[in-house]
Amino acid sequence: MLRRLLPVYAPLHMITPRYQGTLGFACATALGAKVGCPDEPVVALCGAGGFLFGANELATTVQHNIRTATIVFNDGGYGNVRRMQEDL
Questions:
Q1: Which helix (H) or strand (E) is 47 found in, with range?
Q2: Does some domain include residue 80?
Q3: DSSP per-residue string spanning 23-38
Q4: Integer Cα distance of 23 and 27 in angstroms
Q5: Is residue 13 in some structural domain?
Q6: Contacts from 36-40 at CB under 8 Å and sequence distance 24+?
Q7: Can you say how many angstroms the Cα of residue 77 is from the centroid of all Cα atoms in its chain?
Q8: How many domains does the chain have?
Q9: What is the rounded CA–CA span in Å between residue 12 and residue 83?
């Protein structure tokens, strides 16, 4: 669904855990992507709960001056868990 809402125009420019639902994936992965491609802009999209699993990565970001943008949204719960509970 994210690909419909956020178009990506170049190959290998979107990293996602797919359906594995790995909480805390976005911030740490954004740091690695930025270190690997320092001239590319990097944005991490995180739900509030998932962000808190990797919030300690903010210290790494500041300590090593890694310039990423992080967007945290409050969806009122763990979205994948809620979706599975509603479906079942």
A1: strand 43-47
A2: yes
A3: TTHHHHHHHHHHHHST
A4: 10
A5: no
A6: 40/13
A7: 16
A8: 1
A9: 28
* Amino acid identity at 73: F
CATH of residue 78's domain is: 3.40.50.970
Q: pLDDT tens digits, the chain, 88 residues: what are they? A: 556 777 788 888 888 877 666 788 888 999 999 999 999 999 998 888 888 888 888 899 999 999 999 999 887 777 767 777 888 8
Amino acid symbol at 25 = F
Report how far residue 80's alpha carbon sits from residue 52's, in angstroms, rounded to the nearest whole number.
16
pTM of the model: 0.76
The span from the CA of 4 to the CA of 20, in Å, is 19
Q: Is residue 47 part of a domain?
A: yes
